[in-house]
What does this fold into?
Amino acid sequence: METDSGQTTSVWMATGNVPSAEPLGGDTDAGVCVVGAGIAGLTIGYLLAREGRNVLVLDDGPVAGGETSRTTAHLVNALDDRYYELERLHGEQGARLAAESHTAAIDQIEEIVEREGIDCDFERLDGYLFVGPGQSTEELGRELRAAHRAGLTEVKYVERLPYEGYDFGAALHFPHQAQFHILKYMSGLVRAFTALGGRLHTRTHADKIEGGKDGARVTTSGGHVVSAGSVVVATNSPVNDVVTIHTKQAPYRTYVVGARVAHGAVPRMLIWDTLDPYHYVRLQTVRDESGAPSHDVLIVGGEDHKTGQAEDFDERFRRLEEWTRERFPAVEGFEYHWSGQVLEPTDGLAFIGRNPGDAENVYIATGDSGNGMTHGTIAGMLIRDLILGRQNAWETLYDPSRKWTSATTDYVTENLNVAAQYTDLVTGGEVESAEEVETGSGAIVRRGLSKVAVFRDETGALHEFSAICRHLGCVVAWNDREKSWDCPCHGSRFNPTDGHVINGPANEGLTPANE
It folds into this structure.
């Protein structure tokens, strides 16, 4: 599958594909214009199209070419931030609504799969949360009680996982979780959306996004204008918001390995541990040409770090491989290594709804906190209702303008981390000159008062850009694994050969050094 999000290949990219679409060719009108064709954007578009709305979806890359193709595609109501923590941050009712909405998101995906006949390996299975080595099981007790208060009364404590190859110890059993092949699902979602009259245009960059009482306008880099009643920005990190939302969430890179195992050698289940950063595990079956199972891919993720603030990519993959081999002796070898970007809100839940400080007809969906498949589906359900004027009990919980005091410490810590990155503006370069940059690699060079991001491609040609991120002026860092320039402040990422923005919040590419 074609993707703009990095050089590594996920198991989904290797075993699935999505339909292509043409760029927008002229000015047009729509009831709703959605910017972003990942799971959030296309779910929003599909659910609104089912209601008879005239919907147009734009993306500057291919369908699902961003972080949607880099997920591990867990569908869970066992949330990463723990129910006892969500209860502290949002109150007991907030935790109940979080459980209710993520449960409803899994049900919604299942309903779409069945209604549209999407063959995407969707299956229900059990999930297990276990403690890390040397940790007390007391946390399991806290989470069990909080999960029950949140309405997940079927969650129970078990002495061990149903797996004989390794003793993970005690765990919490979360029934009725699910998984699927994300790109097969997205392919079916595109077909269903367009069959309902929805319009989709890829390779179309939204340069300017405006709302207002007289309607919304999206102006593309090709000069075409979409006039709409409402506009939804579903670009993982919103490109229409300069500051407000980006002080409330932080970007992290997360790493994934895919190991080949014999089909059936590892039980089908989802598992997570309580470490920080934590590990998360699932299986994906690969089929031969006849459709029979060939083997399974054991998918294991973890080793997160702030985007643009680490260089030991190979070491992180090595640690994941070591962790996996120790616990799953059936591993025959590692076939996949990839990374993805996760946006962590300081209070644990996504921001879905009207964009703060903007017109009433501009909506955003961001801050997936490691649960992008369900948060993206919640976005579809909630923004549909907001645009249609329906009451939705989740509105306040996910409101991007929500106020909180319980998460103040995390808010301050993350924003102090951002402030510290600006010291790179006055430091020296990583190398003295461009001649020192190796083939296939990048480095920062200081030239007088400026810093230049220099990449040497496989032919030996140099590509030089200002090293200053077009969002809020941080100095970018080289990501040698994904071959991208990554901003350590708010997570913007850029292509090294043309400076094109890969990931927001920046909405403009890096400036060529000679300009």
Notes: The chain is about 25% helix and 30% strand. The longest strand covers residues 293-306. The CA atoms of residues 79 and 395 lie 19 Å apart. The chain has a mean pLDDT of 92.
